[in-house]
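Q: what does this look like with cytidine-5'-monophosphate bound?
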Amino acid sequence: MSGLERGFRRARVRAAAKINLDLRVLGKRPDGFHELRTIFQTVSLADIVDIAFAPGRRTDVVLEDDAGISDNLMARAARLALQAMRITGRVEMRLRKRIPMGAGLGGGSSDAAAVLLALPALAGGWLSLAELTAVAAQLGSDVPFFLLGGTAVGIGRGTELFPLPDARAWPAVLVAPGIHVDTPGAYAALSPCLTTESQQNKIVSFQTHVWDLGSGKLAGNDFETVVFERHGRLPALKKALTRAGASFAMMTGSGSALFGLFPTREGASRAWRRLAGGSGLLTEEKAYRVSLVGRARYRSMWRRALAGHAIPEIWPPRSRYLK
Ligand code: C5P
């Protein structure tokens, strides 16, 4: 990884995890994906991505990660971003994985989005948010959200996004049970339950929840029924979060991670200690103390990470190497 030491333009960025504050699956679409109504929210748990770029006559992408991920989306993201900018060169990346994988926390999607945001700034190119979103949607349904961060409604496949005013910066506890949920399998299990009548109810309660965001009163995750049925440990963990003082607890994405939102930082810390400190969790289960990350904080984190490479006032970050 010589590029990370010298001669390359480089940056270290944090790729944040997400939770779904609400997730309704309405039905299967002609393209095979499911129509969603969801509220995405970035949280402070993050992977660390080192990324370096040097212009060259052909494109080479090298990636090291500490989790042994086969077919990492980051490499595809780098190639697609360079292609879209019509730039060639060598990209060297190193990923330090902190976000549990296959848990519904969007770690792989966030890593890919991090490449899409950082690489133009390093390579002296620029892609509009619309162009970046098109590339992101090719990589996965959750990837476009990480170009925005904060709180956002996702509809369609989850790639059509509408920023919402930030939810309160709730202190939160994530519990990752070490159970890998197969997402296509979870959608397939859900499909028979999707009826027109329930769609009506879902849309009305989803809308009301968006208006009343953060109270948790009307929030729901349609995957809980099918995934909880298969993994009996998950409802027990959800109850443990509530018993530990969470105002609201739910599974994120298609699971298996759960989150609890707490009224105070002390409350969240106490719950984390209670869960992680021996009395609550099994050996393969992990708990994380996090907070919800609003859009302003998300963007300032990005601007800081790309300072020196980007002109700070513009989102997405614009490169200073642009002619
Ligand atoms: O887009 P992504 O690669 O994350 O999707 C993984 C799988 O999840 C898809 O192949 C599909 O089976 C399912 N999915 C879906 N509807 C969505 C998003 C994902 O059916 N809106």
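The two ends are 28 Å apart (CA to CA). The chain has two domains: 2-163+295-318, 171-291.
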